[in-house]
Amino acid sequence: MQYPDLKEIERRPRQYWNADGLPDLMIGALWIVWGAAFLLPDLLPPGEWMRYYWMLVAPILIGGGAASNWAIKRVKERLTFPRTGYVEWTEPGFLQKTVPALLAAGVAAGVVLLVRQEQSIGTVVAPAVALILAMAFLAASVWQKLPHYLWSAGMSLTLALVFASSRMSLARGLECLFLVLGALSVLIGALRLRAYLRRNPVTQGGEA
Amino acid sequence: MNPDELRHLAEVDRVIHEPARLLIVALLAGVKEADFLYLQRESGLTKGNLSSHLAKLEQAAYVEIVKTFKGKIPLTLVSLTRQGRTAFGAYKKGMKNLFAGERGEPL
Question: Which residues touch A124 (CB under 8 Å, ≥6 apart)?
């Protein structure tokens, strides 16, 4: 007797959320902004502003995650939902939202403090971040059945190897990582969005 | 199949057990709410068929249906009620036990 894989069916809305390429596009744009934030201090003349730069930029970068989620929803309302239907996620609870954010902020602050004390640690952080991202992409690709994440996983792994062999500094490594992964994600997202829009023209009449 | 397993089989929730309704409920289990268009595309059912199954699920208080408008276009929002989620959880558990007894495969 063949029984349907209910877990696979329950996972479909999550796959649907990624089907149009918009999350890749928006997250890629966000990563490019993050990469640019690491690059900017090198491009501008040094001065007093450098002391306040990260105090101002860090909250903007952290808030960028929420802003990109908001933007994804707004664009989906115009492009995706009228074509293939609307879904809304169950909002995670307060603890589910805040604990990972606080944990990430704590780890980031810890890394910054460590690097300030011992500069050489910085050369290990960039490859480590790239490796963790590669594993995260691989996991998302397998568990959520999203094969296009394999490209990002492969790129992250390549960058991890490049960073490890070149002993790139923390700022250079993160700048390079976010700019390259951001550009790749934007490219993949744009191609997927174009294919999705071609496959699903807006149907006139009927339900929204 | 022992008498206990046979009893479980007889007690299965028939509202959810019907394949089309099982698909609808499983799709809704992963979200807060979804619209009619999404459910229709994902399930492959016709409008009439989907409406009929949704009506049965609503009758059993497993789903809540809100009819609204987005601009001038009608929008039907469907969500699984607390009762629906509980029933789906119980159904999965019951079937898992049943199938585990038969061949040990998880649902």
Answer: none
Which tokens go with A32? 């490019």
HSE-up (13 A, CA, CB side) for residue B27: 26
A169-183 tens-digit pLDDT: 777 888 888 899 899
Helix/strand/coil for B69: strand
Q: Looking at beta carbons, which residues of chain B come within 8 Å of A88?
A: 31-34
The predicted complex's ipTM stands at: 0.78
Cα-Cα-Cα-Cα dihedral sign, residues A132, A138, A140, A146? positive
Sign of the Cα pseudo-torsion (A66, A103, A185, A81, in order) = negative
Q: Do A207 and B19 touch (CB under 8 A)?
A: no
Task: Give yes or no for a contact between A130 and A177, defined as CB atoms under 8 angstroms apart.
Answer: yes
Which pLDDT band holds residue A130 (cuts at 50, 70, 90)?
confident
pTM assigned to the model: 0.79
Residues B74 and A178: their CA atoms lie apart, in Å, by: 42
Distance from C-alpha of A125 to C-alpha of A171, rounded to nearest angstrom: 10
